[in-house]
Amino acid sequence: MAFEKERLAYLAQVVMKPLSRRRSLVALGSACAVPMILASLGQAQTILPDKPLRLLVGFAAGGGSELMARAIAPKLERRLGRRVTVENKRSGPGIDALEFFKKDLEQGLVVAFMPTTTLALKLAGSPFPFDSQSKLVPLTTAGTFQVALAVSPDIGVSTFAEYVAWVKANPSERARLGTTATDDYLKIYAMMIGREIGVPLEIVPHLGAARLVHAIVDGKVPAGLGSITTLMEHNYGGEVKVLMTSGRKRVTVLGDVPTAVELGYPNLELTEWYGFFASSASPSPIVAEWNRQLRLVLAESEVIAALAQLGLDVETLTQEETAARFDVHLKTWEARQQSFGMKTVD
């Protein structure tokens, strides 16, 4: 309770009053829609096209990715003196988001905002918001995020060690672990946990955090995995209890929750990141300018605080550093997949 009071007090300082996930999305979207008075904003000099710009989110509306993009867009708009909007466009059968925005992407009017887990899924041939990573060039990292393991308060455990002991006491009934998505990255992380604790886990995927939380509350699964962004509100609401996050360093928004590394499971370290990506056909000067402007906006204290409340710890890199990190990241995921006998595709 003490930590919750501190969190709410801090959140009130950042956004004036605590907002639910849904109300936050509405508020951020409204802020993005307020007309600018350019003369009072001191907009930055930039070579980006003097046209409306867009941040492309390759997921359905209302998720954590959109919330993060909407926290960034108004500040970017103020800085550039150009209209900046967030657009959701998920690829599907016969629909390639990159092809849909091909002209605008090549002109530098659109950049994609997505997590690295999305790109890693392409290795296993899983659904992918964009047709080919060969069509993308990394601009910069935006920040890191972690996976959280949460349990039902009703099972009577308060630590990850207690959860492991609880599962081992009756694995045939208790070794069920839900996930917030059908994505392979959560499946692989669940398999990693099972391997580390010595108990194979039955993985039960759900479409979204709400459905997973309902399954936990209803007793259909005792525990679940999801990004901190998707589970933290349910943790604060008492519907689930987060026992562990997957990184090396604790995240700002769940400062009282230990990490896998702290708990003695270095092999369970999993720190993912969000990044911005441009079309590989975009002019090099435009790509470089997007990197510069995005890094300046992400360095603003209000943006850092807003993203921290969404479970993203801001971290930016140069284009070269981002490309190198991305290459290493894909190789790491490929090794994880192969360790479980999963085939990868080019």
Concise summary:
The protein folds into two domains: about 1-145 and about 275-340, D-Maltodextrin-Binding Protein, domain 2, CATH 3.40.190.150; about 145-270, Periplasmic binding protein-like II (D-Maltodextrin-Binding Protein, domain 2, 3-Layer(aba) Sandwich), CATH 3.40.190. Helix content is about 45%, strand content about 20%. It contains 14 helices and ten strands.
Description:
With 346 residues, the protein is of the alpha/beta class. The chain has 2 domains: 2-144 and 273-339, Bordetella uptake gene, domain 1 (D-Maltodextrin-Binding Protein, domain 2); 146-268, 3-Layer(aba) Sandwich (D-Maltodextrin-Binding Protein, domain 2). The protein has 14 helices and 10 strands. It has helices at residues 2-15, 21-33, 64-80, 97-100, 102-106, 116-120, 160-169, 171-174, 184-197, 209-217, 228-236, 284-298, 301-308, 319-339; strands at 53-57, 84-88, 110-115, 136-151, 176-179, 202-205, 223-227, 241-245, 271-279, 313-314. Strands 1, 2, 3, 4, 5, 6, 7, 8, 9 and 10 form a 10-stranded mixed β-sheet that branches. 45% of the residues are buried.
